[in-house]
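Q: Hi! First time doing this. I have a protein sequence and I read that you can turn it into a structure. Is that right? Here it is:
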Amino acid sequence: MELTFIGGADGVTGSASLLTDTRLGLRALVDCGAHAERELERPDGAPRLGFDARLLSCVFLTHAHRDHCGRLPQLHRAGFRGPVYCTQATAEMTRIALLDAAKFSPEYDANDVEMIDFQPLDRRADFKFGQAMRLHGVAVTFHRSAHILGAVALTIAWRSRSSTRRSICFSGDIGGNTPVNPYQSLLAGQQTPGPVDYLVVESTRGAEPARPGHYKSFAARQAAWAEVFADSDARGGGPVVVPCFAIHRAQELWFDLDHVLRGTGAGAPDAAGRPRWLSLDAPLAARMTDVYAERLTRTGDDEERPAWRNPRLAERLGLDDEAGVDRYLAALWARVGRNRAPGGTLRAMRDPDLSRVVALAGSGMCEGGRIVDFIADQIGNPAATIVLCGYAPPETGAGRLRRLIAGDWPLDTPLALGNARLDPRRIKARLVDFGDYYSGHGDLDALCRFVFETEAPAPAATVFLNHGDDAMRAGLADALRARAAVAQPGDRPLADVVMPATSARHDLDAADDIAREARQRLRAKALASLRGLNSGGA
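A: Yes, that's right. Below is the predicted 3D structure, encoded as structure tokens:
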């Protein structure tokens, strides 16, 4: 079995890893993500695939974010006709996202999206998380990653050239929720892989210190929002503008904000009788919310709680049972379609009677979309508040706003948000950074948990670090090596930590060849010694 990193080896973008085994007739791609960078003559900013798409057996898709699924239509256009294995939620949201992107893509159209053969494995009657399924001559196991709805890590096991059982786990993107502390609102905790020989692990936030405990507390996050609203009212009750991603962040924010506004005084009318109300002005996010509504809600009272659903929801909502959670969520998601700003969000924000609106809109990185118009309109308003709630590289609009909050943006340099250019000296709105409350990428603690925690004795594993810039990969590599050197009881031992290069090939069966050659040398030496003894005896 050979592993080649097609994309995602040297940045948070374009994840794609190729597994090839000529004995098994397997050519499988794990993820096929779009590249965030834009290059001349490359509309998607991506290099050529680097392989013949027509020869692929299948694709394993970890989740529905663009940097993991965005090039599936190009793969189809290049001749791939095999199955894309994933979960039902991932299939539904990926299709919605790609059809939306097809409206603007010069590289593919809606037909390419419609022809993708999604095969959700969790629809199979025999599916179970943590239990292997036989596909294309290998054993495939899904583990919840707690990153977004439908997201999984996956383990692939095979027989090596020497008939030794070998396995590799791809993390996809790792969330922060754990079974003990599912602090984000909607999802159950992350599952870790069992004994494996290799791990491919994302490193998006790998060099950052683990986040302080209050960022991993549901109650602390709710209190932080209540403080934002109290401060907003103290400054005149202007709009609260929240950039959000269409997948998962919009739904998490909708849950949290609705909960705070209904459960505290923050949602009550002010002294002038003006209401505070919540609006999601993001059509794509609303369509994604329909998937959340279906996948997080039981279809009957006798059903088990959906595997994705946070087991703490009933407790946090003060409800008696899972049926109460079903009813609560149904009403919550229904409000997405009803809570619309009369005359549009911009008009409401400017209307003194409606300006206490809490406006959610995309994109989360503030590189385009309605949110850029909202922020540009309100950033000079001293009564307004802008709350950043997601990961954003430094050279994005949200990243520049974060640098301004931290005091790292020069005040004499215009700040770009998409096509808007803002004068930092004229910014009057309050800027708040809630990124550490909402990051969908686990911190150092979550990454180490994924690598080291195992319920059974495990062989020493080689860890490949991808999906992070060089600094993040190097920082995580140092942290993993330091913990491995301590050898805490119960930890998975590590054989090596590797920072792979794009297009480099790694022979995953090579260790067996070395072991076999060593055994052959020992056998030959023993036979030679035996012949020598026999000759002496004669």
